[in-house]
Amino acid sequence: MRLLTKINLVLCLVFAIGFATTGYVCNRLLQQNAKAEIMENARIMMEAAVAVRTYTATQIKPLLETQIKYSFLPQSVPAYSANSYFSQLQKKFPDYSYKEATLNPTNPINRATDWEADLVEEFRKSHDKKEIVGERDTPSGMSLYIARPMSVSSPACLSCHDTAEDAPRTMVERYGSANGFGWKLNDIVTAQIVSVPTQLALRRASDVFKTFMISLARSLVEAMKMLRT
């Protein structure tokens, strides 16, 4: 075998190893960045929900306390405001979701499904656990979710959720007396859940990876041609 042929084979091997290594590292970094982007979006949504709830509790509810004596207004409930906010968001981003999944809610729309109830129970078993992150398959693809526990942190909550007899009359007239009662102070009753689709961010990372690898392959081919001349 001629010396030049041997050198070319060695160069090809070096280029192949470098190409594969670069591809592996690049793909891994892009996937990690995509997942970090997904997590950041989920956390921003969670903090937005907290902000809406706080605004409702501190700015809206006090203004409606007198009115509630005559007609119950769901706009005074922080959970209702947060859900309404995200309902508007879903018109443009339908795969994003927010829910305050509750085991025994006043409003049936907040009732936890089986997998959401499992999250609530996990928080109830481990009171020191402040967050659960996971993925689940949905009809529109894989979705990442962040769940945080919500407990009965104030005696004021029990004015609506202790017994039906002590709850505001107008609230009972609207939702009935069968659900949303019997809560206890400091009990974890809800999992605050934000779900974000993973498909778009991962697809963008995959497209960037493909473009980079094609460009790198062309550059390597050109470099090998120059070495042979």
Structure description:
This protein is an alpha+beta fold and about 230 residues long. It has one domain. Helices cover about 60% and strands about 15% of the residues. The chain has a 4-stranded antiparallel sheet with strand order 1-4-3-2. Strand 2 and strand 3 form a beta hairpin. Helix 1 crosses helix 2 (about 80-90) and helix 1 (about 5-70) packs antiparallel against helix 6 (about 200-229). The radius of gyration is 27 Å and the shape is elongated. The mean pLDDT is about 85.
Key traits:
4 strands, 229 residues, alpha+beta, elongated, 6 helices, four-stranded antiparallel β-sheet
Topology (elements, then pairings):
Blueprint: H1 3-68, H2 78-90, E1 97-102, H3 114-125, E2 132-138, E3 141-151, H4 158-161, H5 169-175, E4 188-197, H6 199-228
Antiparallel strand pairs: 1-4, 2-3, 3-4
Helix pairs in contact: 1-2, 1-6
